[in-house]
Amino acid sequence: MKQDAKDRVIIFDTTLRDGEQCPGASMGMSEKLQVAQQLARLRVDVIEAGFPIASPGDFEGVRAVAEQVKGPRIAGLARCIEKDILAAAEAVAPAGKRARIHVFLATSAIHRQFKLRKAKQEIVRQAVAGVELARSFVKDVQFSPEDAARTEPEFLAEVCRAVIAAGATTVNIPDTVGYAVPSEFADLISYLFDHVPELADVTVHVHCHNDLGMAVANSLAAVQAGARGIECTINGLGERAGNCSLEEVVMALRTRGDAFGGLWTGIETTELYRASRMVSQLTGMVVQRNKAVVGANAFAHESGIHQDGMLKERTTYEIMKPEDIGLTGTDLVLGKHSGRHAFRERIRAMGFRLTDVELERAFESFIELADKKKSVYDDDLIAIVQEQISEVPKVYLLDYLNVTTGTDTVPTATVRLKKDGSIYQDAACGDGPVDAAFKTIERITEEPGKVLDFSIQSVTKGKDAIGEVSLQVEYEQGTVAGKGSSTDIVEASAKAYLNSLNRYLFSRDQSDTTSAPPPKKRAAATKKRPAARKRK
Ligand code: KIV
Ligand code: ZN
């Protein structure tokens, strides 16, 4: 089908901003950079790199992406507040002509009355002032009327008209709480085009949340009604139930362009699978097996009838080819005799950019793993690389783990942890070997954590496959994800627990240096192990 420029749908990726707002999914700077580089290889049009005023870490993350990532436009989010806009302007500045400031202000009656306590005309004034200030720094300014889907259409039209007159070049219509349904959302977009002719001179985006599972459907309905930008995230990551999933919306347009009047995107779809794996690994957010497009079962055909059909003609049961999303089925690349060069090339081909030191450490872990298991797959390598690029200091390191368990035995774990060159050890019983290991770690570290979610997945095939444990752990000041992998699942669990604890300590220390923490928090942070359990 011929691709007409007017039918091109802009893909605005907000994995690093809205995606990162997902509880427990926060990323460090080097992790954000890896994701941003992968988004550039995916050829997204815009990367929303963060919310610079939110924290120094967010600011530095946006700035680093603006400095180092070439290709897409780089956006920074700001409320219509001077200090936010100044921070966003400074953070995106290194992107030069590709810099965008994205300002937002809620417009719905419910937000006006209860959150902002502002009348309609004050909202219009503040939105206009925000856009004008942003325009004094960059030519590319996006405005979002937050909760647009629940805003009175006449007032929404008035706000759109005012922000365009003030200089907004993109107007984004968010369904902030995932309340819309496709027909109604499409009607709202049509209404706006009918009542605000100025919209023809700017780009209209939509930003849909997935609270009712309709983010992708609503986004597609909106582009059919005339919007030309979709805001989305890898794996649909985001606040609450998440955002519109990038891979789903892109593959829907690619596979069913005929049903969408020839709409298309510039996305390099063969990078989708890699992007999905990378984001899942770096955030600790597991992709459900039956997730559309990138789930482990998306191209698996189980029943005999389906397999028979597939063997005769793939298209009987396959509407997309695995190769289209970058699943080649030939990721078995390395073994224990592979050299450094082959290893480095494979890591590069998978989209990671490591420093020489990181590469060397990753290579050592690879050799260690290749000694334990014959075949090393791409997913094994991602697990190795992730350990290297994470800037979260390994405050606690697993030095030794021994568990005894069985049908007639009380499960008991002995754990030795390393911290600042010292060794701490303890033992505890639990309901099972994993519980015993967690309890022992808690005894040693004295950081109480409640495991809210535990899942284990086999990263690759075979009996010697790496098991990858993903956890969500609730600590005193927040919930943090953790991941650990090993060919031994109890060890993988202990590593995942320590990973979440190290991440928690890292973010707590960061907020300690940027804001005044409650006194209780400081006391907990300086608590030490009783000397009795310490061994040199
Ligand atoms: O959901 C939302 O409304 C947002 C805006 C900041 C665009 O994320
Ligand atoms: Zn959002």
- Bound chemical compounds: 3-methyl-2-oxobutanoic acid, zinc ion
CATH topology of the largest domain: TIM Barrel
CATH class of the largest domain: Alpha Beta
Q: Distance between the terminal alpha carbons, to the nearest Å?
A: 70 Å
Shape category: globular
Oligomer: single chain
Instruction: Return the average pLDDT rounded to an integer.
Output: 88
Strand residue percentage: 15-25%
Q: Level of helix content?
A: 40-55%
Biggest sheet, open or closed, and with what strands and sense? 8 strands, parallel, barrel
Rg calc = 25 Å
**Total number of helical segments?**
17
CATH architecture of the largest domain: Alpha-Beta Barrel
Q: Tell me the number of strands.
A: 15
Relevant CATH superfamily of the largest domain: Aldolase class I
- Quickly count the domains: 3
Structural class: alpha/beta
Q: Strands of the largest sheet, in order across it?
A: 1-2-3-4-5-6-7-8
Low-confidence stretches: 514-536
Q: Describe it for me?
A:
By secondary structure, the protein is an alpha/beta fold. The C terminus is likely disordered. Helices cover 40% and strands 19% of the residues. The chain has 3 domains: 279 residues, Aldolase class I (TIM Barrel, Alpha-Beta Barrel), CATH 3.20.20; 49 residues, no CATH class; 139 residues, Double Stranded RNA Binding Domain. Helix 1 packs antiparallel against helix 10. Strands 1-2-3-4-5-6-7-8 form an 8-stranded parallel β-barrel, surrounded by 8 helices. It has 17 helices and 15 strands. The structure holds 3-methyl-2-oxobutanoic acid and zinc ion. Zinc ion binds next to loops.
